[in-house]
Automatic annotation (TrEMBL):
Keywords linked to the UniProt accession: Cell membrane, Membrane, Transmembrane, Transmembrane helix, Transport
Organism classification: Bacteria, Bacillati, Bacillota, Negativicutes, Selenomonadales
Membrane-spanning parts: 12-35, 56-77, 89-105, 112-135, 147-172
Compartments (UniProt record): Cell membrane
Keyword 4Fe-4S listed: no
PANTHER family reported for this sequence: BIOTIN TRANSPORTER BIOY, BIOTIN TRANSPORTER BIOY-RELATED
Gene name tied to this protein: bioY
Source organism: Sporomusa silvacetica DSM 10669
Membrane topology: Multi-pass membrane protein
The protein's name in its UniProt record: Biotin transporter
The keyword ATP-binding appears for this protein: no
Length: 178
C-alpha cells in the first residue's frame, strides 16, 4: 500500500471538492429554469483536466456527499438530499461521470486540443445528458422542454468554461510531475 500516494489523492480530492463548492457561490438563478447558472461546472472541468481519474472521482464524490449531508456546497448555497434528488440532481450525477470522462479522454496528454475535446465531451455533453434527462423525469416536462430550460441557455457559458479550464489545465499540467 502506498500511503503517500493515497494521502496525495485525498488531499487533491479535498482541494478540488472545495474549489467546486466555492465556484458554486457564483450562482445566477434564471426565471425560466430550475437550474441556475453556476461556476461549479468549471470546477469539474478543472478537476478532470488536472487530476487523475481516481483523484477526480474522489473529489466529486466528496463534493456530492458533503452536499447531500446538508452542507450548503451546491450552487446558490444549497445543500441536502432534496437538492440531489430535485431538478438539479442529474447535473451532480453528471459531474461524477463527466469528470471521469474528462480524465480518461485527456489521458497522459497535455495537448490543448485534446484537453478542449475532453472538457467538451465530459464537462458539457455528459453533464447535460444526465442533467436534462433527470430534469425531464423529476419535473415531468418533456426532454425537449428540459433541454430548452436546462441546457440550451448554458451552452455559451459552458463553452467559455471549456476554454478557461483548458488553458489553466495545460498550464498546471506542464508544472506537475507526471
Amino acid at each position: 500500500m502506498n500511503t503517500k500516494g493515497d494521502l496525495t489523492d485525498f488531499i487533491y480530492a479535498a482541494l478540488f471538492a472545495a474549489l467546486t463548492a466555492v465556484l458554486g457561490f457564483v450562482s445566477i438563478p434564471l426565471p425560466f429554469s430550475p437550474v441556475p447558472v453556476s461556476g461549479q461546472s468549471l470546477g469539474i472541468m478543472l478537476a478532470g483536466s488536472i487530476l487523475t481519474a481516481r483523484q477526480a472521482v474522489f473529489s466529486v464524490l466528496t463534493f456530492i456527499l458533503i452536499g447531500t449531508a446538508g452542507v450548503p456546497v451546491f450552487s446558490g448555497f444549497a445543500g441536502g438530499i432534496g437538492v440531489v434528488f430535485g431538478p438539479r440532481g442529474g447535473y451532480y450525477f453528471g459531474f461524477l461521470i463527466g469528470v471521469v470522462v474528462i480524465a480518461l479522454v485527456r489521458g497522459n496528454k497535455n495537448n490543448i486540443w485534446c484537453l478542449a475535446l475532453a472538457n467538451s465531451i465530459g464537462g458539457i455533453i455528459i453533464v447535460y445528458l444526465f442533467g436534462v434527462l433527470w430534469l425531464s423525469f423529476v419535473t415531468g416536462m418533456g426532454v425537449e422542454k428540459a433541454f430548452m430550460a436546462g441546457a440550451l441557455p448554458f451552452i455559451p457559458g459552458d463553452l467559455f468554461k471549456v476554454f478557461v479550464a483548458t488553458i489553466i489545465g495545460v498550464a498546471i499540467n506542464k508544472r506537475l510531475p507526471q
